[in-house]
Amino acid sequence: YPGLGALASLAGIYFGTAIDNVVLNNTAYTTIAHNASEFNQVTPSNAQKWMYTEPSRNVFTYTNASAIFNPARAAHQLRRCHTFVWHNQLPDWLTNGNWTAATLKPVLENHIKNVAREFREDCFAWDVVNEAFEDDGSLRKSIWLEVLGKEYIEWAFVWARKYTEGKAKLYYNDYGIERVNNKSLAVREMVKDFLARDIPIDGVGLQSHFTVGRAPTYDEVTAALNLYTPYHPTIETALTELDVRILLPSTPATRTLQANVYVNATRACVEMASCVGVTVWDFWDPVSWVPESFPGYGEACLFDEGLGRKEAYFEVKEYL
Ligand code: XIL
Question: Is residue 207 lining ligand 1, measured as CB closer than 6 Å?
């Protein structure tokens, strides 16, 4: 009987999950994670980040990503790839290097070239650049901005198009752009500018890390997705890292609110022509990044500690 992925596909989108390498030895988990009826798309939570794929300069390792993609391929799950350019989870040799634009630019190209080629047959989409904007709409300070200047973003997209040989949808991905605000407006301006100048870009990923009580409504997510409607079908959208954290301890009331947030987000995607799918940033509470990153919050996923399906799961399923 159908899971979220199968139902989503009838509704015209995919429904996927992030998968982290730390739980691949848990077969109860992997049985669900690689069941294409439940999740017909997967994203590696960490495996394709720079610190894992190029731990030493020009030494590339793909073991973690393969451990997720091999079973995903066998299960006919779509693979979203994450991420080429980010300010976090960089290897020390990169962070601590004494770079100039002339020395760092070829490092970035070489990274995208190798990783894109390795996963050329896997990735239907790549998060080319992740989290490059601040909430006020300015560009985030990072090694990339500081050493290369703002052009690093468009260079990454140009190299990504070249080395994926046009086989992947190229996404800009960020959090906090699930409402119309200074940040999402800045992302929209970038998309518009790229299209006007023929810089390749195919999609915008709205991460969608939400908090019960502060989450955007259905109308707000719809308005945020709608920012890209003038550029659709050239530009598609997706909810790429959906989770809904609760201030602990949770109560029946906050768990019901959480279910509403999951449903509203999923519905906003289903009903928006440009939105191709929803990915939850893991489906299982014990591997969620939330408790570590947001102390006091948790229970953000669709499945509880005992791998039981939660109210949010059943409500999303009921909606789909
Ligand atoms: C998180 C992972 O889930 C954690 O395991 C890791 O320790 C830190 O990164 N936005 C992103 C993701 O784009 O890559 C992040 O993933 C969560 C926030």
Answer: yes
Structure token pair of residue 11 = 């509704």
Residue ranges of the chain with per-residue pLDDT less than 50: none
pLDDT value of residue 190 = 99
Q: Which residues pair with 81 in a beta bridge?
A: 126
Q: What is the tens place of the pLDDT at every residue in 72-104? A: 999 999 999 999 999 999 999 999 999 999 999
Domain 4-319 has CATH 2.40.30.20: no
Which residue has the least CA distance to atom 4 on ligand 1? 289
CA-nearest of 21, 16, 175 to 88 is: 175
- Residue 53 CA to ligand 1 center (angstroms) comes to 15
Spacing, Cα 162 to ligand 1 middle (Å): 27
Distance 45 CA to ligand 1 centre (A): 6
**Do residues 311 and 250 make contact, with C-beta atoms less than 8 angstroms apart?**
no
Residue from 38, 54, 178, 241 carrying the catalytic annotation: 241
Domain positions in the chain are: 4-319
Q: How many CB atoms within 10 Å of residue 90?
A: 19
Q: Is the ipTM of this complex over 0.85?
A: yes
> Which atom, in ligand 1's list, is nearest to the CA of 82?
14
Q: Which of 309, 281, 284 is nearest to 26 (CA)?
A: 284
**Does the annotation count 118 as an active-site position?**
no
Q: Are 42 and 32 in contact (CB under 8 A)?
A: no
